[in-house]
Amino acid sequence: MADSTSLSLKADQDDRISDLPDALIHRILSFLPTKMVVATSLLSKRWVSVWTSVPALDFHDSYIYRRCLEAKMKFMQFVYNALLRNKSGSVERFRLHCNANYGQSCINAWICSAAVDRGLQEADISVSKAGGEESLLKLPSGLFLVKTLKILKLEGDIMVDLRGPISLPSLKILHLRLVNYANDECLGSLLSGCLVLQELVVVERKTVNLNISSPSLESLSLTTIGSTSSQHKVKVNIDAPALKQFKLQTQIKLDLYVNLSCLITADIMGGSQGGTQLLAALSRVKSLRFLRIDHLAFAVAAGSFPSFVNLTRLELYNANWVVVSQFLQHSNKLETLDVGTSMMFTKLIPGVNCWTQPDEVPLCFMSCLTKSVEDNGNTHRNIFVFRFKALHSQEIVDDVQVLADLSTLIQMKAQFLILMAWVRSSSVHFPSGFLAM
Question: Which segments constitute the F-box domain (predicted)?
Answer without folding.
Answer: 14-68
